[in-house]
Amino acid sequence: MHTMTHESKEPPKPRRHAVTLHDIAKAAGVSVATASFVANGKRDVRLTDETRERVQRVIDELGYRPNAMAKNLVSGGSKFIGLVADAIATTPFAGQIIHGAQDEAWKHGYVLLVANTEGNEPAEREAITMMLEHQVRGILYSTWFHRAADVPEALRETDFVMVNCFSPSLDSRAVVPDEVQGGRTATDMLLAEGHRRVAFINTTAIAPARVGRLEGYQAALAAAGIDFDPALVLDAQPDQEGGFDAVESILRLGVNAVFCHNDRVAMGLYDGLRARGLAIPDDIAIVGFDNQEVISAHLRPPLSTVQLPHYELGAAGVRMLLGIDEAAPDELRRIACPPVARQSTSAPRPVQP
C-alpha cells in the first residue's frame, strides 16, 4: 500500500486589506476628496505644493494604487451618481426612490451606484468613501421615512442632495414629500363628498408627517368654512393595531368620515368597524395616506388614499443634483402627494325625517 506524505507548510499569511483613499486621507491629515485629487493627478484643483507632496509621500509609503476605472474618469468626470440609503430597499415602498433615481439618471447618461447601509454608520462611511473613489458626479442621501437627518461629514466632500430627508440646520439641498399639501388633499377628498364632520387619526410618532398632515387637515377645514375641533383629532400608533384601537373613540365622536394618518391605520379601522357591523363607506367614509398598494388596492372596498411620491422624489433628486432643476444651496423642495380615489368615500346618506 502506498502511503502519501505531505510536507508541512507554514500557514498562509493573512492578506492585508487593500489601501483605500480613506487610509491615505487619514494618514495625510486631509479629506478623502483631497486624497483622490492627488492620487488621480488632478491638477485643476487648488492645493498647495506642500499638501500635494505630503499626500503623495503617504501614497508611496502605503503603496496605494488608484482604481483603474477612477483613473480613466479623471479627465472628464465620471458618469456615475451615488445613492446611499439607510433601509430603503427593505421598506414596503421597496425600490421606488431607487427606481425613480435610476430612470432619471439613465435619461441623462448616468449610472446609479446604490448602497443600502441599514443605518450602520461605519457601512455608511465606507459606502460614501467608495463612491468618492469612483469619482461619482454626486450622491443622493436617502432615508426610508421622511425625517430630519444629520449630514455625514464625508458627504460634504462632493455634491449631494438629500432625498426624503433634510438637514436639521437646513443648510443643504433636499427634496421631501409635501406633507401639508398631502394632508389637505386627503381631507378635501372627504369634504368633496359632502362630509362636514371629519375626524383625523394622527400618529404618535414625532415626524414631519405628524405635523404637516395635521396642518393640511386644518387648512382644508378652514377653506371649507368648518371650524377646527381639536376633539376630532386622535393620536394612535401608526399601524393596524393603532387603527383598530381607535374605533371606540371614533364611534363616540359620531363622525361620518375619517382621515387616517396612513394606510395601515386605515386597515385597522376597517377591521374594527366591520367587527361592529358597520359598513364602509355607507356608515363611515375613510381616506388613508401612503398608497401602500399591497394594502390600499386590496382592501374591500379599495381604499381611497394619498400617494407618497417616492418615485418622483428619486427623479427630482437626480435633476437637482445635475443642475437640470435649479436650486438654491439650502433649498428644501416639496414634492406634491397626489390623490388616489377608490371606493372608500361617498356622500353621507340623507337623514330620514
TrEMBL record:
A Pfam cross-reference name: Peripla_BP_1
UniProt keyword DNA-binding present: yes
Ranges for domain HTH lacI-type: 19-75
Gene3D superfamilies: 3.40.50.2300, lambda repressor-like DNA-binding domains
Keyword set, alphabetical order: DNA-binding, Repressor, Transcription, Transcription regulation
GO molecular function list: DNA-binding transcription factor activity; transcription cis-regulatory region binding
PANTHER family on file: HTH-TYPE TRANSCRIPTIONAL REPRESSOR PURR-RELATED (PTHR30146:SF148), LACI-RELATED TRANSCRIPTIONAL REPRESSOR (PTHR30146)
Name listed for the protein in its UniProt record: Alanine racemase
Organism: Pseudolysinimonas yzui
Species classification: Bacteria, Bacillati, Actinomycetota, Actinomycetes, Micrococcales
